[in-house]
């Protein structure tokens, strides 16, 4: 959710008083630790193999609704599922790993499109490490996504949360959002680290400059050729027996339906169908009418991304039963997105009306229940670490920025509250099934 694109979207959607968001970054560094070098790797791998066997027999975790089991303490059955996907951002940078600079932690204050309103709010950028562009403060501090110890810790936390698929924000090599630089070089390392914990990596393709169906076709070919053979690269079983990569396409509405049809219809001039780089493409539903555009374009499914109830048509949980009926009718995947809350006021200080409080986990639980009640094919979680929008479940700690007299928000039940709550909620989600 590129900042410039967000401003344009906000202008179009001024009646909603919101923006569609985003920010990114990083580069790769440090050598990898061999599997088995840490006993945690072996434990998690063993647990996830056991979970797969249990899932075949319909086993469910003993965790009950409302229980918060300890993370990193008592080692309990995780009952993870590859039907649980979580959006992950490898865009953070700090001076130690990223050429002497901070990226994303020093996010600018985005200005309101109305100049009269903009005048009332702060301008400039945040100044890490104590002052960051987020309402919560990470347990790992103002980290770099290129720090292998950070990447490894993230994968361990995600595995322990019960999530099976990490949907990584992706730009083609050399491209990025306006807040950072290219982090495409991190994907191989993410695949390696994910594999150590039994996780899979899917890609969340961002709306880079001059993105077209022609460039996307080349992207899909690149993705298959460079990542497709890796054991941790996520593929989904189709009704015809093929296992194809699942790719999220953010802001898919930016490309016209007739253009998408050339790529996604079997008779399209640039079709990927039944080629070596065919894929299951999941498009973003923002407005009610987007369902028709996505279905007629040839998309294989829809997702809703936004974690703020009432932010868009797709983020309103009471609309999900109707969307589920629609996707069943057309044999599309329905992947609603759930989140623990929303708070982007440290980068959009004027956007308080769209804040959604966490309610000590009750908000997250309601969203999860809504997704499970409609029989979602998969559940996507927004997010593991989108700190700017306050949707993260990554551990956060108490912190005060003394210089600016700002006290960061905390999780009421400790840093790992939302990892544990995710695990508890996913224990109620049915075992994996084949996609249509």
From TrEMBL:
<comment type="similarity">
    <text>Belongs to the glycosyl hydrolase 99 family.</text>
</comment>
<keyword id="KW-0735">Signal-anchor</keyword>
<protein>
    <submittedName>
        <fullName>Glycoprotein endo-alpha-1,2-mannosidase</fullName>
    </submittedName>
</protein>
<keyword id="KW-1133">Transmembrane helix</keyword>
<keyword id="KW-0812">Transmembrane</keyword>
<keyword id="KW-0472">Membrane</keyword>
<dbReference type="GO" id="GO:0004559">
    <property type="term" value="F:alpha-mannosidase activity"/>
</dbReference>
<dbReference type="GO" id="GO:0000139">
    <property type="term" value="C:Golgi membrane"/>
</dbReference>
<keyword id="KW-0378">Hydrolase</keyword>
<feature type="transmembrane region" description="Helical">
    <location>
        <begin position="7"/>
        <end position="25"/>
    </location>
</feature>
<dbReference type="Pfam" id="PF16317">
    <property type="entry name" value="Glyco_hydro_99"/>
</dbReference>
<keyword id="KW-0333">Golgi apparatus</keyword>
<dbReference type="InterPro" id="IPR026071">
    <property type="entry name" value="Glyco_Hydrolase_99"/>
</dbReference>
């Amino acid at each position: 959710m590129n900042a410039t694109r967000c401003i344009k979207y906000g202008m179009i959607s001024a009646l909603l008083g919101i923006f569609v968001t985003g920010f990114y970054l990083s580069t790769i560094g440090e050598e990898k630790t061999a599997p088995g070098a840490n006993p945690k790797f072996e434990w998690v791998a063993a647990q996830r193999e056991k979970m797969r066997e249990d899932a075949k027999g319909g086993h469910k975790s003993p965790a009950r609704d409302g229980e918060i089991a300890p993370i990193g303490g008592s080692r309990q059955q995780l009952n993870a599922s590859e039907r649980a996907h979580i959006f992950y951002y490898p865009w953070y940078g700090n001076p130690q790993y990223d050429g002497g600079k901070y990226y994303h932690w020093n996010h600018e204050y985005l200005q309101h499109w109305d100049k009269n309103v903009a005048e009332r709010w702060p301008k400039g950028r945040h100044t890490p490490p104590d002052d960051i562009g987020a309402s919560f403060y990470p347990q790992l501090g103002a980290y770099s996504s290129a720090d292998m110890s950070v990447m490894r810790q993230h994968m361990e936390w995600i595995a322990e949360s019960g999530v099976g698929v990490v949907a990584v924000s992706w730009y083609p090599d050399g491209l990025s959002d306006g807040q950072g630089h290219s982090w495409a070089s991190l994907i191989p390392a993410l695949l390696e680290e994910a594999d150590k914990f039994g996780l899979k990596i899917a890609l969340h393709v961002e709306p880079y400059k001059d993105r077209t169906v022609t460039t996307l076709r080349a992207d899909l070919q690149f993705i298959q050729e460079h990542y497709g053979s890796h054991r941790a690269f996520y593929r989904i079983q189709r009704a015809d027996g093929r296992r194809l990569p699942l790719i999220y396409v953010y802001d898919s509405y930016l490309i016209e339906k007739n253009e998408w049809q050339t790529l996604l219809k079997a008779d399209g001039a640039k079709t990927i169908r039944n080629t070596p780089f065919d894929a299951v493409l999941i498009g973003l539903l923002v407005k009610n009418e987007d369902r028709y555009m996505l279905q007629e374009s040839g998309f294989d499914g829809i997702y809703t991304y936004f974690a703020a109830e009432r932010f868009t048509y797709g983020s309103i949980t009471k609309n999900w039963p109707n969307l589920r009926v629609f996707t069943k009718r057309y044999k599309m995947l329905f992947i609603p997105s759930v989140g623990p809350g929303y708070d982007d006021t440290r980068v959009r200080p004027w956007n308080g009306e769209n804040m959604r409080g966490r309610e000590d986990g009750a908000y997250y639980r309601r969203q999860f229940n809504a997704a499970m009640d409609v029989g979602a094919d998969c559940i996507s979680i927004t997010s593991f670490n989108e700190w700017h929008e306050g949707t993260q479940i990554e551990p956060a700690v108490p912190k005060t920025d003394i210089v600016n007299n700002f006290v960061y928000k905390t999780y009421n039940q400790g840093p790992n509250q939302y990892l544990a709550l995710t695990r508890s909620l996913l224990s109620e989600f049915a075992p994996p099934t084949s996609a249509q």
